[in-house]
């Protein structure tokens, strides 16, 4: 048996993962809850359209936030791959690919926002449609962000589950935290699939409960990586050299 030490590339990747994890969370929360949500009037497509037209720069800033978030997710998955490759290359790659699929699906959100802006732009070729129809179509584009997220959520949850399992096996973070990550991430995957099949599931289990425990886990891990870094770990590997017998 041999002992695998944490190398400098893993330590650097841990810092990158910590910063990218925190920054991406802050960016997506700011884009959603500070910039986008105030423009949306529930049940009123006309009022929502008026807000969008009056605050186009605010909506475009949301687009930039979502693009920046996607970039941050790619940086994060790269850093996590570097950390976990010595633990299990196959699972590390699977986790990175799951998170990459989520990032690609998230890119649909900026396109939806730009599509809504185009519908409300008063372009000449749109004059054949009544204003209320254009407002309704713009609202459909905004609502599509909800679908994009929940289609991508199983991939996000699977990525987090794989990473939490690798955190557990590597002992790079406290074992209790890693176990919480496995449970909360697997719970998110289960809820996401059930919700896609039964759309009224969120009336039984609030949809914020789907992913909040997993998000909390990822935030705590990000803080841990910045403050504590990777814990010393002993990874057992098989030594294939033949044993020397007694002669």
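^ structure tokens above, recovered residues below v
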């Amino acid at each position: 048996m041999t002992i695998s030490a944490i190398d400098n590339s893993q330590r650097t990747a841990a810092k990158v993962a910590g910063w990218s994890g925190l920054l991406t969370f802050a960016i997506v929360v700011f884009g959603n809850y500070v910039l986008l949500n105030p423009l949306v009037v529930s049940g009123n497509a006309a009022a929502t359209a008026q807000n969008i037209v009056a605050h186009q720069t605010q909506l475009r800033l949301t687009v930039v936030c979502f693009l920046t978030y996607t970039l941050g997710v790619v940086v994060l998955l790269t850093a996590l791959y570097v950390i976990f490759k010595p633990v299990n290359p196959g699972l590390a790659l699977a986790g990175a690919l799951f998170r990459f699929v989520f990032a690609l699906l998230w890119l649909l959100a900026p396109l939806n926002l730009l599509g809504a802006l185009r519908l409300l732009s008063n372009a000449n070729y749109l004059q054949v449609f009544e204003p209320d129809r254009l407002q309704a179509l713009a609202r459909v584009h905004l609502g599509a962000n909800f679908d994009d997220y929940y289609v991508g959520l199983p991939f996000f949850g699977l990525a987090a589950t794989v990473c939490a399992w690798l955190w557990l096996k590597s002992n790079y973070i406290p074992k209790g935290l890693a176990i919480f990550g496995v449970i909360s991430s697997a719970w998110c995957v289960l809820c996401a699939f059930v919700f896609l099949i039964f759309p009224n599931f969120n009336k039984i289990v609030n949809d914020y409960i789907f992913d909040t425990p997993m998000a909390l886990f990822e935030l705590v891990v990000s803080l841990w990586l910045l403050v504590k870094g990777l814990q010393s770990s002993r990874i057992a590997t098989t030594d294939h050299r033949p044993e020397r017998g007694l002669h």
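The longest helix spans residues 131-170.
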